[in-house]
Amino acid sequence: MERQMDEQEIIDSFDKAIQGNHLFACYQPQVNHTTGRMVGAEALMRWKNPEYGMQYPTTFIPVLEKNNLIYRADIHLFEAVCKFQKKCIDAKLPVVPISVNMSRYDIVGHDYVGDIEKIRKAYDVPVKYLRIEITESSAIAGIQRMQEVIAGLHSFGYIVEMDDFGSGYSSLNILKDLDVDIIKLDMQFLQGEVGGRGGIILNTIVQMAKWLGTPLIVEGVETMEQADYMKSIGCSYIQGYLYSKPLLEDAFQEKICKIEHEPLTPALKLIDTINAGAFWNPESMETLIFNNLVGAAALFTYTDDTLEVLRINKKYLREICMNHTEQEVITADPWRGFDETNRKIYEDAIRKAIASGEEESCETWRTIHSQCCGDDNICIRSTLRVIGTAENQYLVYAMVQNITAEKRAYMVMAESEQKFRFASEQANVYAWEYIISTRQMRPCYRCMRDLNLPPVVENYPEPAIEMGIFPPEVADDYREMMRKVDSGIPQIEAVFPLTACRVPFHVRYTTEFDENGRPLKAFGSATLVVDPSQKEAAGDTIK
Ligand code: G
Ligand code: G
Ligand code: MN
Is 164's C-beta closer than 6 angstroms to any atom of ligand 2? Predict the structure, then answer.
């Protein structure tokens, strides 16, 4: 007569279940999906009632918890695990660390740490073969009590795992207060289309665990796709039906003899200037600093040419003029808006920052899109710095500055300057002003540069003749031309071979008069003669 027992039947048969080993452990392997090796196992409580058959923990565990029986059950299971490990050690079989679940009620009114330690010693099992799983829900005992228990477990050398991470609402907060060694998260809690909410949470947790340097095990992995996805986001430690259902002791023992094992290793080291744990907590000082003091900034990981945005602050959104949320930016394709050239510039800067370990800057143009305003091109100066590394993965901190306005102004300037230069170079024009009453000449900047003239030339044209700009053989012709300008000729022009090279130029004057008709200034110019027929006429005609 197989059926689930009701509450009273559970309570009534509990003592017998302990004595008769109707309560026992099944073992579910934990595997490194990259290597296929076993890294550990979890002991899961099972109850096989002689009369009613298999009972499921989701039914009987809440009953045991409610009736203050869970402590004895958990201690019983811990002892069963020690017995099993001892048996394997004595038989010289391979041994892998086994995780044991701790109920949130085990730390209220019990000396859990003291009691399990007595059992472990009695069975003489090295502490490295035992791990304790606690859940966020243990916080009902108070964070302080949890910290005390974790510290107690650590003092004896137990590895502590945070079970069902991400199921509670305050996961991020709890992590900063609790010094756990391994994080376990359940794929079943995080279901959803890849790239959807579940994907985002998974991804964030995996990244976070990495930057904390905490190994992470995903449970409830049923398909190869899920396992591959987890591996792709950097988490290879997997527990679930894909590799194995929870196994009876004998089957598990067979499995550990057949399959190779390896130790769990922490993922990375974080550059220790920022408190990574607090960084993820939205209420932490680090977040406060991130949002308020550092200016517009983003944090992303870069792995084998893939870029993944982890966090951006409020100023970042404002700086980039985006009417998006942090979450929207994080989930969007980070290269959206970059063309090939700008993407290359950005990636080159990242690689430089990785190679140098120093700050590297780059300027890139991107197109941003908004529903209401359409597309806009912006130029961003990014200052990049690697702040953490894990194998081939880099954590990069980017400060951003929107320099679009600056850039546009510069471009307009550069463009007009360029046009001017282009035009004057094309025309080979030199220009100057001649003030008739004082005989001062004020050259244009090209004259100053090319002919080495001062800003004001007194007693013109004598210095120009002395300097050889007007060579001796044309000196008198030019003096004659200037006399005509002085006397008020409205326009005059002639071709002169200029400088020692005797390069033919058209020299022209146009005179400006005051209201009484007296000559004030003459605007002089010299234009390169490009037509060879005019070259022959050089120096001899004054029209
Ligand atoms: O395999 P599964 O159906 O075994 O487990 C259901 C739930 O029961 C899980 O949340 C798991 O954490 C919990 N659980 C499994 N074994 C134990 C145990 O030995 N002690 C406690 N307290 N909970 C357990
Ligand atoms: O202690 P914890 O809540 O982590 O227990 C793990 C639970 O997940 C147990 O109930 C176990 O039987 C169950 N489980 C293990 N592997 C899988 C799996 O691949 N899929 C699903 N849906 N459940 C699993
Ligand atoms: Mn568990």
Answer: yes
